[in-house]
Design a protein that fits this description.
Blueprint lengths: L10 E5 L2 H11 L4 E5 L5 H13 L3 E7 H4 L10 E4 L6 H8 L12 E2 L1
Parallel strand pairs: 1-3, 1-4, 2-3, 4-5
Length: 112
């Protein structure tokens, strides 16, 4: 519902369990083009996927493992971050949110 009526909005969705990541990506990728990164994604592939999300206006969702992607990525193309599952460590949650709060962010960031 967040994306309905807004053709440019990009959303990052974090989850912890692979099953949840798979279900989210499966449901959302029927409507929206996006990326998925989890612990099994090779480091060189992560860079390519993140670059695609950042640069391709048609790539509008990023479904990410909170443990694999909470640090080291820049995702300023998105302005909404959704935590589908909460992680036990609040520091990891803050780090994950900060993937959007980085130099180059031009929009307000909404956390759901």
């Amino acid at each position: 519902q967040l994306m309905e009526g807004n053709e440019t909005l990009k959303v990052v969705i974090f989850a912890h369990h692979n099953y949840v990541l798979s279900q989210l990506y499966g449901a959302l990728s029927e409507t929206y083009r996006g990326i998925r990164i989890d612990g099994s994604t090779a480091p060189e592939d992560r860079k390519v996927l993140c670059d695609t999300f950042q640069q391709d206006d048609n790539c509008r969702i990023a479904v990410l493992s909170i443990t694999a992607c909470s640090t080291g990525l820049t995702l300023t193309a998105a302005s909404v971050v959704v935590f589908a599952e909460l992680y036990w460590n609040p520091g990891i949650l803050a780090q994950a949110e900060d993937r959007l709060h980085r130099l180059g962010q031009r929009n307000n960031v909404t956390v759901v």
